[in-house]
Design a protein that fits this description.
Pfam families: F-box-like. This is F-box domain-containing protein. It comes from Araneus ventricosus. The protein is globular. Strand 1 and strand 2 form a beta hairpin. By secondary structure, the chain is an alpha/beta fold. The protein is built from 15 helices and 8 strands. A 6-stranded parallel β-sheet has the order 3-4-5-6-7-8. The chain folds into 2 domains: 41 residues, Monooxygenase; 167 residues, Leucine-rich repeat, LRR (right-handed beta-alpha superhelix) (Alpha-Beta Horseshoe).
Length: 270
Amino acid sequence: MDALYTPEKIFDADEINPIEIQCIAEKWNSQTVETIAEACEKKGQWSELPSPPLEKIYSFLSRADQVNMSLVCRKWSEGYSSPSVWKTFIFALTESQLSMDTCPVMKFVRKYNNMFQHVEIKFPETGYDHKIKTWCRHFILFLQILTSNSQLISVNFRDLLWCFVYIDIATYIDICRAIANFLGSQHHLKRAEFHNCPFKFRQCVELMKELTENSRESLTHLVLRYFVRYKSMKQEQDSTVAHILPMLIGLPSLTTLEIDYSLIFEDMFA
């Protein structure tokens, strides 16, 4: 015997009461409409999420996920352009980004660089040997944009050693010049860090000169870890080596100094 199914119960086909079935169907349709309406209402509430929690959510996401989130609705797209989202920026290009004719990261850099406050620059650990020239070109352009438009609170350079190993002297000089110009343009840096970025000593002195002269009053934290090439240090005259110490001692606001003492100070007074 055939049976009829509804959300409420199963009826034997011989016992069907058309009036009862109609009432149940109307009730089910009403519930369905209410459910859909509630879902739409909730969706509307998410799109109207206030700026503080929206920006907080953005802060937990990777840059790629932030882009995806910004595509959900107009309000979330507007949130993506808020200063808090761009306060911290990490310049770390992937191999796929380096393979593109137009690097998407640089598009965001041009648009939002005036909101940057804390910047970290990472040379990719894997090296991407065949893409190093492209990385250097983007890196120099990145520094030039910051030089023109940004006043940072902190900057952190990491692992440029692996870049210096493979590039020619002309590219090395171009990178040093771009870093020096950038440091010379910054007047409110509180924190500057160099990790595993060994420069030749002449460039090391030039970078410290630009940093200490232009962020002299604001700099409170300085980290120089493997900042000078050991080979270069041995080749320089003692009079040149002595340039760094007065620069560091003369910083009135400096409270924290992390440095390879064995590299600089032992050689100074040997």
